[in-house]
Amino acid sequence: MITIENLSKIYGAHKVLNIESLNIPTGQSFGLVGNNGAGKTTLFSLLLDLIQPTTGHIINNEVQVNTSENWKPFTSSFIDETFLIGYLTPEEYFYFIGDLRGQNKADVDALLAQYQDFFHGEILGQKKYLRDLSKGNQKKAGIVASFIGNPKVVILDEPFANLDPTTQIRLKQIIKELAEQKDVTVLVSSHDLIHVTEVCERIVVLNKGEVVRDIETSTETLKELEVFFGSDNAEVIVE
Amino acid sequence: MFKRFASLQWKSFFRSSNLGKSLGIKIVMGFFAVYMLISLAVSGGGMYFLLRKIFPDQNPIWIVSQYFIYWILMELMLRYFMQKLPVMDIKPFLTTPVKKSTIAHYILGRSAASIYNLLTLFFIVPFAIVLLFNDYPVLNVLLWVVAIKAIVLSINYINLLVNKNDKVLIAIVSLLVLGYGLDYFGVFSIKEFFAPVFHALYAYPIAVLIPVALALLMYYINYTYLKDKIYLDAKLKAKSVEANTSDLAWTKRFGEMGSFLQLDLKMIWRNKRTKSQVYISLLFVFYGLVFYTQDIYSSMMPMKAFVGIFMTGIFLSNFGQFIPAWDSSYYSMMMSQNIPMRKYLESKVSLITVSIVAMFLLTIPYVYFGWDALAINFGCALYNLGVNIPVILYFGSFNKKRIELDQSPFGNMQGASATQFLVMLPVLVVPIIIFSIFYYIFNLEVAVGVLSVLGIIGFAMKNYLFGLITEQYKKKKYGMIAGFKEKAS
Prior knowledge:
By secondary structure, chain A is an alpha/beta fold.
């Protein structure tokens, strides 16, 4: 589904990302871990064509991301709260995204109904604008909005951060269900090794912009990751 | 402590990520300010002689006292639009051993140093010096200046209390209009009523205590108010308003563009900054009165073209120049969504188009001043529609500064950069030059005709032009995303 070749991003003299080749097959649930400054968000931003690669390219379902926009209809994402429109209510926001993705109101309502549990009664019908919701609730709205319109690729940056424990557990369930659908590729980044090993079939570790581990998740994976991040191999880049 | 705060202020300015640009603006603004101050000083110095000449039988101080009430109202209005309320990021200090009273005193003290407090002085001091040279009593004149300084400071602190409240603005403007109207039609003379009040400040030196006491009182009210506000929740709580969901179903008729149109309407209506743009634009309908009612301008046709372009295009320039920065806080989402850039822009265009047509309809009553007025406004509206819309959209693609929609009352210069000053050139100046050339070579009909034809040509080439602009936006995309991410300081 997603092929990355010779991808690099350089800011000044600082190489923040350098991936020679990475291939994510259709339907995989893909986890990205790394310390601050490892290049996770940079990679996701490149996937969404929000920044330009210095060299190389990404091909998303046969569409080269930085030259064509045809990847947009089947790719959806939630990176951070700047993806939300603060002066809309959550419902209005969902309908707006639905509009952009060719879903009518009824379609969106049907989808939202599935996530009643996840919302925990704190999102819909609150008579509040998104800007007035708490960080955690904003995140819930943003994550669910990225499921609208049957996307084939879903990209979530740090989806577990800022969520309360109950919601984290529910989100894990949702991502697992999503990953079970054979045609949906899910990309998740996280600082939380436990969550990411639970929901992802494959985990890639980024360190200083390079792929240093590429692991198929097994019972040993969590240990392996803990050993890696506990050692001196993984340096925190102070930003 | 004050010194430390001041040094933080200094650092936040010089270390801000868009220093170069904001420095540029500050310099340009600085020039304007210096120009303003010098012209105020010159007119202050000359005012004595002027008043002596026009009203030989009245004391200049009396005349100044007559108009002082208007001066105060005007200053309040000016400050509403122009003066930035003093803000500082208090959050980091809340947990440090800094007294809240120190923070409050610093914020208030800094606002006393605002340039707006100098405006009146630059007028009054030269005036007073001339008075002294004309053998007016020294004590009276000096204390009069002190009294006026105290009034200015009171205005400054009242303005802080008003806190950019729309209702107060409306009250001030209506007082101003009402008062002037009463004076003008001789129903009741506001001037005569207030003249003794302000003249007393000169006539009885002891009266200086009243404005000084007023200034101190205003300072104290602000101080107590501010001191109570230095809490996290006090600042955050007040804002959350109940959302009113509306689906604006009629926008669906516009097809793909409809959802953007709906978004834009909600943006304008639900954010203070955009909402006040609408009000300001509507107020500018009256701008023409300034020119049409005065005989000096009756033969100055280019001036009327300026008014025409300005009145019909006020929303165009106020709203249009910040496209797409209005959407800056969620621009990366928009760019990763399946958005037809063209439809996105067309939605903005249709809003502006509606505004131009509406403003033109509102200016129709100017036909009272002659058919010329209607013809000029019509030509200007067409020019705005056909030429200025594409021009302003094109310049919009250079916008890289974020606008914080929900940070409404503070920092009205946010999002402004050198581009905004540059864009006024083609939008305002070019049509006036075109108009003037054809007006002076031929006549009014030809000049209006040329503007209209240019507008129609632009309108006819709409598809082609918007195609080019869309490409331009696509090209500038990465720069915009990066720029909009930077929080303005």
